[in-house]
């Protein structure tokens, strides 16, 4: 299966489980039979993710509570279980999967959703301010610092390339923005400047965009502005998309 399909099955297998009616082992076996999962590797992945999300339910709850509190206007409640799966994959399975495989799973989803997720979770302020204290209520402080937080931050150099790619994809107008059957007219384009920061790394880019893209760019700007306040870590002012 492709990454996106695997994630969809993980979500369905997790949400359809009822502990009052059956055991998790019996449920997973029945589910895999139902979808006719012939690939052993796919079956193992679905099992591990569902088991993992149940085992680390409290851990994920802290993360998702912080995500929806901090970025409530940017994330949908309908995607709660999607973010739950990626919380588990990011916090627990990242180094087992390896960054190249993790990249495929991230890029398989909507770029704007993943952009919000990745810039949220791979941020030292988010980890130390929003989640460390709550995690320490569940786990030993050394485990939180040395495993959960340190694991994310030591992978930041490699993961930052994925975040940058998500920013590029989210700022590009999709073909789907043009309604089927409508004549594709050439809209006037406007150059916009976007300042994006990930930890202490800042990159500036100019892209050419139509009206549909500007809406997506406004969301990205709103996200970075909300995350970093009125200035970026290096002291550069956050400027709204401006015509040049």
How would a textbook summarize the main sheet? Answer: 2 strands, antiparallel
Structural class: mainly alpha
Residues in helices, as a percent range: 55-70%
Number of helices: 12
- Multimeric state of these chains? single chain
Distance between the termini: 45 Å
Strand content: 5-15%
How would you characterize the overall build of this protein?
This protein has about 240 residues and is mainly α. The protein folds into 2 domains: about 5-170, no CATH class; about 185-244, no CATH class. It contains 12 helices and 2 strands, in the order H-H-H-H-H-H-H-H-H-H-H-E-E-H. It has helices spanning about 5-15, 25-35, 40-55, 55-70, 80-90, 95, 100-105, 110-120, 125-135, 140-155, 155-170, 210-230; strands at about 190-200, 200-210. Strands 1-2 form a two-stranded antiparallel ribbon. Helix 1 (about 5-15) crosses helix 3 (about 40-55) and helix 4 (about 55-70) packs across helix 9 (about 125-135). It starts with a helix and ends in a 16-residue tail after the last helix. The model is unreliable at about 175-220 and about 225-244 (pLDDT under 50).
